Automatic annotation (TrEMBL):
It comes from the Bacteria. PROSITE patterns: BLUF. InterPro entries: Acylphosphatase-like_dom_sf (IPR036046), BLUF_domain (IPR007024). This is Sensors of blue-light using FAD. Residues 2-93 form the BLUF domain. One of its GO terms (molecular function) is blue light photoreceptor activity.
Length: 135
């Protein structure tokens, strides 16, 4: 069963730019290996993440992420099952986006989301655009 979790959080004060880059690189690599799709965005001291994958992978991973001391104030926005059939692209990778780069990658993620998960497209698209201050 596929599952999605979406949350916002605050970056811990002792996290440097180098540590941020390390988190982003680790997440992209690990999530692609685990067949997790979604997005991790960083902007002005906050994270926004959407995780989509097998329920037995997503739930323990989110538990681990929540305990990670490199961020705090983890506020869950979405936590629900998603229809298998909404996933048509199996080889889509996990996008990581920081304020300096990645608008093109965000547009690509949103386009995929609109096709694969139309139910969540409107709200996630709204949140990501606001988060990156694109509108
Ligand atoms: C904001 C944030 C998001 C994270 N997202 C993921 C993620 O999507 N996938 C992942 O494997 N680790 C993610 N991590 C890292 C995990 O919290 C954890 O450090 C990592 O999975 C390594 O765990 P391990 O040493 O038990 O393998 C994230 C960390 C932070 C701070």
């Amino acid at each position: 069963m596929r599952h999605t979790i979406c949350y916002v959080s605050t970056v811990s004060p002792d996290v440097s730019d180098t540590m941020l880059s390390e988190i982003m690189a680790h997440v992209k690599q690990n999530n692609s290996k685990l067949d997790i799709t979604g997005i991790l965005m960083h902007s002005e001291g906050n994270f926004f993440q959407v995780l989509e994958g097998e329920k037995e992978v997503i739930l323990p991973l989110f538990h681990k992420i929540k305990e990670d001391r490199r961020h705090y104030n983890v506020i869950k926005i979405l936590d629900k099952e998603i229809n298998n059939s909404t996933f048509t692209e199996y080889h889509s990778s996990f996008a990581v986006i920081s304020s300096q780069s990645g608008h093109k990658e965000l547009q690509h993620f949103l386009k995929r989301l609109k096709t694969n998960n139309p139910e969540h497209f409107k709200s996630i698209s709204y949140l990501t655009q606001k988060f990156m201050k694109l509108s």
